[in-house]
Amino acid sequence: MTQARTLYDRLWDDHLVVERPDEPALVYIDLHLVHEVTSPQAFEGLRRRGLLVRRPNRTVATIDHAIPTHDRSLPIADRVAAGQIEQLKRNCTDFGVPLHGPGSGRQGIVHVIGPELGLTQPGMTVVCGDSHTATHGAFGALAFGIGTSEVEMVLATQCLLQRRSKNQRVEVTGRLRDGVTAKDLILALIARIGVDGGAGTVLEYTGSAVRALDMEARMTVCNMSIEAGARAGMIAPDDTTFQYLHGRPFAPSGRAWDEALERWRTLVTDDGASFDRSVEIDGDAIEPMITFGTNPAQAIAIGGRVPSPTDVPAADREALTKALAYMGIEPARPILGHPVQTVFIGSCTNGRLSDLRAAASVLRGRKVHPGVRTLVVPGSEDVGRAAEAEGLADIFRTAGAEWRAPGCSMCIAMNGDEVRPGETAVSTSNRNFEGRQGRGSRTLLASPLTAAAAAVTGAVADPRTFA
Ligand code: SF4
User: Is the pTM of this model over 0.90?
Assistant: First the structure.
């Protein structure tokens, strides 16, 4: 009798090329996503060694991190960004890698276009030189970020050296209440287990609250697995997954679809499989969440009080004091009403159509507070087109928000979109480290609903009061 396996163990075994004791294993990679910032040195390495890309048809490139999101007809002023973009175009031509560049109709953030084009499929191994590759785990894929030298290795061999991770189950029971989103779920988890709560493990999200999420919400959850220190996050595929994929440009079709479906339905954790760690969360009890500090675990329910250094274990006191000083946030006070000068709605965490619909539901018929600069940035050209077609873009413009072209934008602040020094931003992105959104920027991570509520009020607000 074969041993009961988790979904992660199953995918690991399926992709194993060689595994020897005390050495990293060699794992086959099904899909390699490439962008302009972490690939130039890797392609240069191939040229130096006289190597080709091993599987160009398993490699897909886009331009997202460095590309400005304002008027695309203008030349790119930043010479470094312009150089990275031109270099990727050249590399893709030279090495035969398909590129979904600006104006192709398919350009966008790498973790948005992979799924929406149907490139990301259940059971795959997916890598990219970006930490938030875990997003693709929402499809029951094993997906993780890699470094530049690893990008070169995968380009050259379609394989990667990896150590096997442990298994951690995250069971979310019940159902999320109205006004509570996938972003709140993942922030609640990270607040509970900490930024190293997932260290050494791959998280498998299970439970009724997870099953009830649509694919875009599942991507939001898996996207931030890395912020809990996990190697990856995944959700076993089900009918929600299959319905999402059906008919997408690179999804199998006809007989190949039926065969794929048969295979995908087997991608589950076996009954009786054991997890090294487990955590259970009551989905009914999750509130809208917001961060107050400089890591994603420093998060509280929107109606809560910011902790005081005396509330936390001695080992955490200094970090909390430093974080609050950087953020300009008073301890032991409610976070509601804290002034906000910038709102960013976008990123690979929350830049999809359902996220824009959520933000528009708050902004419809309302105006952005005069003191708040609000950027709404679709995750891809496809998302942007759909948002234009259903009137969401008009809602944002009429409300006084800036409606931009797709890209990473203010998530990473390397493309001209930055939070100004000393300003506080409510951001739907995934990282709130010091300076992440620009030098001296102060980031409060939250859902699109909460971000839109802050845009209207000019302060942290409970999105449920806008229902
Ligand atoms: S949106 Fe942010 S986290 Fe996502 S791929 Fe771009 S820079 Fe990375």
Answer: yes
